[in-house]
Write a structure and sequence with these properties.
heterodimer, A: alpha+beta, Archease, Possible Chaperone, Chain: A, domain 1, five-stranded antiparallel sheet, three-stranded antiparallel sheet, 26% helix, globular, B: tRNA-splicing ligase RtcB, eight-stranded mixed sheet, seven-stranded mixed sheet, 34% helix
Chain lengths: 141, 481
């Protein structure tokens, strides 16, 4: 696990460190899984096609988070993992095409969590480091 | 996100100044006592007070209430006013939950009458008012036309449809309707809002049955129907998914607008546009529409509270249950305030703060003109809440604003860790408070210890003269998301 939740007084702050940009995005989906379903297992029963693009890496993380939170809030879809088909990275404007595998939220098997209202731009970071990539995101609860 | 060296100077027992430095256009002003200030150590909220002071056209100080804590963009508990010509509007100064707010109903019942049927009342409220993540109503699906009516008319739409009485509208900030423009709300936001009207949501939102335990101003308490022993119902909720989406949509536009208008931001979440710009006008139209959704949401929940009271105690009890008041906590509104002796029209942002207009203010309904605007300050689910009234001091010093709640002092993670080995609903029940919740995680994150003592917060605003204590309420039953 390369992500952790960092103390924040009112909301939820997540920090991710990963060896590659691809892995950073995959781990972001694990953060989102935990935020909506707790630490219970989520089965990859169905797939949702996902295609997001953005002017820079932080905005790509924002766009991917919004897509997945939307799928949960509108349809009760809980993510299990991200499978990336194509990924463009800086210096090109970043974009991602792939699938999010997951299943329908089941209160008997998943743990209902407080509602995530949104992913914010406050302290939003996604940048390369000497060892790979790091990201920080703040979710409004 | 820029970091400035934080210097704080004590002005008096309840006021602290953050002097203007660097790119700040004004000072910061924090209302707190020494202990509340001590609690802020390690929290980034003072930096956020400083960040807000960088925004163009700010008038007066960047203000923080004693329930201030770290938010995103603005601090929670922040107030800032902007000149209508030179200032800006910032969706981050309102927040995702547009017009998140609170209302208080008073019943004709006393504690002795309610206690024997409290369990039945708590269960009925839990059934009648959906709570939790993405909660929706199967008995109220709005057509696109009806939703536009909600966005345009707010609580007035709900009353017109039979969910309340005309008297309710007299007891709401702005009469429960702001000049909303449904055309400025995206289809995506409307989709998220279609089935959520009349639902409480999650996090710190709740429906709480309580009773009046202390009265500090008997004349005003009597006018508000808050005699000792009176059973009350608090409702805390906002604009649900529709409001979150409006904020997201316009943050994207405001990031571009800030760049277009050459506004330097210390934090991207403070993105904003000049008040005269098309971006600002469109945001305000959409924000007001979402605020109307929130007013209607709380009005519908009041209807289901009355229906629950009718089921448990009879129709006459429901009919005699009146709204005390309804206030916004997250909003930006044009108001006229006196600045350096002259009246100025300002866009006042309140992010986790409450309007607190004084006696005599023309915007108050006649029934409150002589006592001032009721101010509702919920605490945590284990201790107490307060009713105050607005004061001339608040109008003079804080653009007619005061605190909005206890304010968190512990992260959600810390609270969960503390609650994990315990059974919080059982602990509260042993203290006479029933809890009904859709999620254990929510209850654990909302444990009383996670919050500051709201009595301390309220004592600061009372002593500083930016609010006046009227009554204290103690919880009996809480419905959480």
């Amino acid at each position: 696990m390369t992500y952790r939740f960092v103390p924040h007084t009112a909301d939820i702050r997540a920090s991710i460190e990963a060896p590659t940009f691809r892995r950073l995005l995959e781990d972001l989906v694990q953060v989102l899984r935990e935020l909506v379903a707790g630490d219970r297992p989520v089965q990859p029963h169905t797939a949702r096609v996902i295609a997001v693009q953005a002017p820079d890496p932080p905005e790509l993380l924002l766009a991917l988070s919004r897509e997945i939170l939307d799928a949960f809030q509108l349809d009760g879809f809980v993510p299990a993992r991200l499978e990336i088909d194509t990924l463009t990275q800086p210096p090109e404007p970043p974009s991602l095409r792939g699938r999010v595998l997951g299943e329908q939220f089941d209160p008997a098997r998943h743990e209902t969590q407080p509602e995530i209202k949104a992913v914010t731009r406050h302290g939003l970071v996604a940048e390369p480091t000497t060892e790979g990539w790091r990201a920080a995101l703040l979710f409004d609860v | 996100m820029s970091q400035t060296q934080v210097t704080v100077e004590q002005i008096d027992a309840f006021r602290w100044r953050v002097p203007r430095t660097g790119g700040m256009r004004t000072d910061g002003l924090i209302f707190a006592d020494a202990e509340l200030m001590h609690d802020l150590e390690g929290d980034q909220c003072i930096q956020q007070v400083i960040n807000v002071a960088h925004l163009p056209g700010i008038v007066g100080p960047s203000i923080a209430m004693p329930d201030i804590h770290w938010g995103y963009g603005f601090p929670i508990g922040g107030v800032a006013a902007f000149d209508e010509h030179e200032g800006v509007v910032s969706p981050g100064g309102v927040g995702y939950d547009i017009n998140c707010g609170v209302r208080l109903l008073r019943t004709p019942l006393t504690l002795d009458q309610v206690r024997p049927r409290l369990r039945q009342l708590a269960d009925t409220l839990y059934r009648q008012i959906p709570s939790g993540v993405g909660a929706s109503r199967s008995d109220l699906k709005l057509s696109p036309k009806e939703l536009d009516q909600v966005l345009e008319r707010g609580a007035e739409w709900a009353v017109h449809e039979g969910y309340g009485t005309p008297r309710d509208l007299e007891c709401m900030e702005a009469g429960g309707t702001l000049p909303g423009e449904p055309a400025q709300v995206s289809q995506h936001a409307k989709q998220r809002g279609r089935n959520q009207l009349g639902t409480v949501g999650s996090g710190n939102h709740f429906v709480e049955v309580g009773h009046v335990t202390d009265v500090y101003d008997s004349a005003v308490a009597t006018r508000l129907g808050l005699a000792p022993g009176t059973v009350t119902v608090f409702i805390h909720s906002g604009s649900r998914g529709l409001g979150y989406q409006v904020c997201d949509d316009y943050l994207d536009r405001m990031v571009r607008a800030a760049d277009k208008y050459g506004i330097t931001l210390p934090d991207q979440q403070l993105c904003c546009a000049p008040l005269g710009s098309p971006e600002a006008r469109e945001y305000l139209g959409a924000m007001n529409a979402a605020a109307n959704y929130a007013f209607a949401n709380r009005q519908l929940m009041s209807h289901y509270v009355r229906r629950s009271l009718a089921d448990v105690f009879g129709a006459d009890v429901a009919a005699a249950t009146d709204l005390v008041y309804d206030v916004c906590h997250n909003i930006a509104k044009f108001e006229t305030h006196t600045v350096a002796g002259s009246p100025r029209r300002l866009c006042v942002h309140r992010k986790g703060a409450t309007r607190a207009f004084p006696p005599g203010h023309a915007e108050l309904h006649q029934r409150f003109r002589d006592i001032g605007q009721p101010v509702l300050i919920p605490g945590d689910m284990g201790r107490y809440s307060f009713v105050l009234v607005g004061t001339p001091g608040a109008f003079a010093e804080t653009f007619g604003s005061t605190c909005h709640g206890a304010g968190r002092r512990m992260s959600r993670h810390q609270a969960k860790k503390l609650a994990r080995p315990r059974n919080i609903p059982r602990e509260l029940e042993e203290r006479g408070i029933l809890v009904r919740a859709a999620s254990r995680a929510t209850v654990d994150e909302e444990i009383p210890e996670a919050y500051k003592d709201v009595a301390r917060v309220v004592d600061v605003v009372h002593a500083a003269g930016i609010g006046r204590k009227v009554a204290k309420l103690t919880p009996l039953a809480v419905v959480k998301g």
